[in-house]
Amino acid sequence: MSSLDARLQSLFPKPEDVPAAHALRSFNEDGAFLVDGVISHAASRLPVTSPLCLLRDGRPERPLIGEAPHLSTQDALAALDAAARAWNNGRGAWPTMSVAARIERVEAFGQQIRPLRETVARLLMWEIGKTWPDALKEFDRTLEYIHDTVEALKELDRKGSRFEIEKGVVGMVRRAPLGVVLCMGPYNYPLNETFTTLIPALIMGNAAIVKLPRMGLLCHLPLLKAFADCFPAGVVNVLAGDGETISSPFMKSGRVDVLAFIGSSRVGDLLKHQHPKPHRLRSVLGLDAKNPAIVLEDADLDLAARECVRGALSFNGQRCTALKILFVPASRAEALLEKLCAQVEALPVGMPWEEGAFLTPLPETSKPERMAALVEDARRQGARVVNPNGGKTRATFYFPSVVYPVSAAMQLYHVEQFGPIIPVVPYRSLEELYSYFDQSPYGQQASVFGHDPAQIGPLLDGLANQVCRVNLNTQCQRGPDTFPFTGRKDSAEGTLSVSDALRVFSIRSMVAASYDKPSKQLLTDIVTGRSSHFLRTDYIL
Ligand code: G3H
Fold first, then answer.
1. Digit-coded pLDDT (tens) for 447-486
2. Cα–Cα distance for residue pair 497/314, rounded to 1 Å
3. Is it true that the peptide bond before 480 is cis, omega within 30 degrees of 0?
4. Is 17 exposed, middle or buried (0-12, 13-18, 19+ CB in 10 A)?
5. With a 6 A CB cut-off, is 321 part of the ligand 1 pocket?
């Protein structure tokens, strides 16, 4: 028995052996949802089980960790009505509130959820198998995002707090909210990625409905009270249930003004097309990706292997920004594979609370089978699993496979595996690389490993027009969140970053008048009398 076999045999503990600090605490939010400022507990619920199996009679089983609300179309439409009332055709208390007051509410929300850090991280860990340090990091990154969003809005507001005079017209231009926003985040960053759309949508004055992801939803339920306490009724509504029962009726109603969706392009496209008035819908979508790493002839292979392993396997490869295919010159393939395999085989396997654990169980029930099927398809077409433990599975755990040589005949060349497989493609000319990019439906990011400016310069020029971020000698990633995060083709629509998100969820609107004496007097009276929140020259420091 290899040491990995032995590790997998002892991976899942008995319930009583879970360290007390990481055991799930009692949870009063089962089935909770928030509509129109009221937290209710759904009569209809779905069990939520954890990928962190526990031993029962010696067999690993997914334990029940909570109950998700399973809402009806009627519940969903009540949430839509509540959001529409809060928006009130732009005349609601929230969309007309001063920017300073909205900032105050968002900051109060951040303060109120801060003490829930460990509660939220524990739920993230149990529901999606994220390691304890990464779950804490997801919470911290979210609070930081809230803080940075507030600062970015202050800056935007300062810039807008002035009159411009052009060709006899005096005007003030500000960014104004758009209406009702439907926010849908993914299961891999259920908190952070939901909040990177929700917070900017709210702070700009929109009303929001959050449809929680199928997995990774429990961590949101302890936050409902803070939403109810800090925002006027109907401004934030949080619910869960089947997409067809909930999201489709929202879209088909035509009453959603912005769709903020992070998930598959299949679902994103479906939702967009359900809206009866496409030109009235603004979409901001973070979709599929299959970011390639291109290793050049002169690359430092130690560095490339290290970055590619981290880039491909952090959170078990379940990141939209993960490196999902590696291209290596055929002449250097064996050398790179050796380094990749050594590093992959050395990755610590463990339950997410174990110190140093890197590879952890996978939340999707069919994921190990899906990974095995992709590897089997590649095998049938002539590839092999290069690392000795590649593909070893126990219950919800799948050990990463390094698969080589991958070619265009294999599914692994084309599909987004979103899991622990590293497909490696040998290439002989840059033309083969270009052909990959040309036929790929994805266009998020790429990584390039090499040092020759004469070769990398022109390569960058081409890649920058195929993807939206080229990473030099480092893995792909979304952060820092102040940088633009977007993609081409089927990878994204719209751009997110701290400041771009404020633009995405708003539109420029202006007040204009002739630059004559009566108009100047009226504008001055409004500003000095502080009778408008839109038309003002004071600003927040
Ligand atoms: O799943 C996609 C995430 O936006 C990736 O973010 O690069 O920080 O892991 P990350």
1. 999 999 999 999 999 999 999 999 999 999 999 999 999 9
2. 22
3. yes
4. exposed
5. yes
